[in-house]
Amino acid sequence: MGIEMCGIVGITGTKQAVSVLINGLERLEYRGYDSAGIYVNDQTGQDYLVKRAGRIANLKSALTPEIQGSAGIGHTRWATHGVPNEINAHPQYSADERFYLVHNGVIENFEQLKQEYLADVKFQSQTDTEVVVQLIDRFVVDYEMDTKSAFLKVLHLISDDSSYAFVLMDRQTPDTLYVSKNKSPLLVGVGDGFNMVASDAVAMLKETHNFMEIEDREVVIVKPSGVVIRDFDGNEMKRDTFRVDMDASAADKGTYPFYMLKEVDEQPVVMRKLVQEYLDTDGSPVIEPELLSRMQQADKLYVVGAGTSYHAGLIGARLFERLTGIPTQVFISSEFAYEQPIMSKKPFFIFLTQSGETADSREVLVNVKKQGWPTLTITNVPKSTLSREATFTLLLHAGPEIAVASTKAYTAQVALQAILAKGLGMAMRKQLAIDFDVKQQLGLVAVGMQAIVDSKDQLESVAARYLAQPRNAFYIGRGIDWSVALESALKLKEISYVQAEGFASGELKHGTIALIEDKTPVIGIITQDRTAGLTRSNLQEVVSRGASVLTIASKHLAQPDDTIVLPDVDELLTPLLSVVPAQLLAYYTSLGKGLDVDKPRNLAKSVTVQ
Ligand code: F6R
Fold first, then answer.
1. Domains present along the chain, CATH in parentheses
2. Residue whose C-alpha is closest to residue 552's, from 544, 539, 562
3. pLDDT tens digit string along 36-62?
4. Hey, whose CA ends up nearest to atom 3 of ligand 1?
């Protein structure tokens, strides 16, 4: 069955392929980590295929010194169907062991292709990928086509609703990578004496900083000496290279035990980076005038995202409404995709997506575009699919986020929406926006975040004392504190497997309070003047039912026995601080349980299936 979220890397040229592939796969491991494999060819007739179930570490320990080559392909997999075992791992290969293929995506009509063309073939894996590679072999061997034509023929036979990123190797042209994509990310890395391909630039940054985009439904031939891109009709496409100046070490853990901790710690720097990128010396937002004018014409803003990005959108909606007066509604992308609400007359869509690749969000973008409405993607990944397909893009500049649990991308999304709301509000001459000194406030936020990340010891002991044992926990709050409660609970459940809920604190007593038992942790978030007293009363209700109550409170609202006291910032921006202790509580709970913080079970970083 389909292999949907995976990391792909390929190289051909003067480099030692094995180390490049392994290094690339390690950087892509966030995309999937239940099995991995490589195929390399040394150009003298010797080739090697190594696959293992489990992490890349397993694959690495299976490699022996004679396994070498100057061209190869590698794959790390996260399966949603089919067992993640060695046989189903990629590369998949043809029965005559001539063709080797790595694939990310789902071939929707693979059963039909199998019956129509390969009824006599015995398959060893359960993958759709094996069908594709066997079919290429069939056209080459039985129909005497050359490899490129056979590859193209198969691409034509694959149904349009399928998704794929393919890199194919042929033992008879061992320095050539045959490449194509549809709806799945893949790009070319251009080097000196070598060329590469991978599903994310981070997998190639150690070797090159120059990249080339691949559009959907093109065939790309990658050789050591050059890259030729053609559309499916055979027309050669001119493509410029672009440079990514990111340092390869930005994607390294450095001395940190886990990426998540590094990424939590980077948040003050990300805040300063956003100030530098988007605000001028007097604190006015520097945003494309065309974007502001299109947003200004809107009668309603629709914010769309999934998971953590959806949670960032909840805060954004509050910011847009307060600072611009434009009604704003937030949607979970997978819901909007199938149940479009009755639309306002002049909608403007904002897509929040760290990766820029989330299939649920893309589905909405594609539909919205068809209806002719303007769109903005706010993403961390330049040239990602949602960035390319939207009318406008704003980049988060947060640096690569590798840990599966999103942290710095969330705070960057909130901060950038604040800057955008300020810019839009100013353009609309809204007094609240004019008075909101976002530059000064983000400066305070950066300092406040630093103070919180510097109090890790305290958070580690709170996590050990209150969160190590219980199966259930609650984060509660009102208004934007509730929105942060949702994100805080998601962090806790995804990496520590504690069943956590984020709840509107006033709503708890209407049913869910029945779940409170002796020592159930309930963490109250208290940052808003208007609701602080109410949330404290709701905490009293659970104390009297035996809950262990913890509090995260802004300084000016704090009481002597609050657990964590946050430095004061403008009420609109408190989520940027209140979420940080929650991220660290989740981190230390997971760490204390001995779990793999960065790679929680059942999850992958970028969810490219619907
Ligand atoms: C949770 C998390 C996910 C993502 C979601 C959307 O920590 O990271 O909930 O936020 O899968 O991903 P993006 O933002 O890449 O669209």
1. 7-105+162-245 (3.60.20.10), 259-453 (3.40.50.10490), 455-610 (3.40.50.10490)
2. 562
3. 999 999 999 999 999 999 989 999 999
4. 307
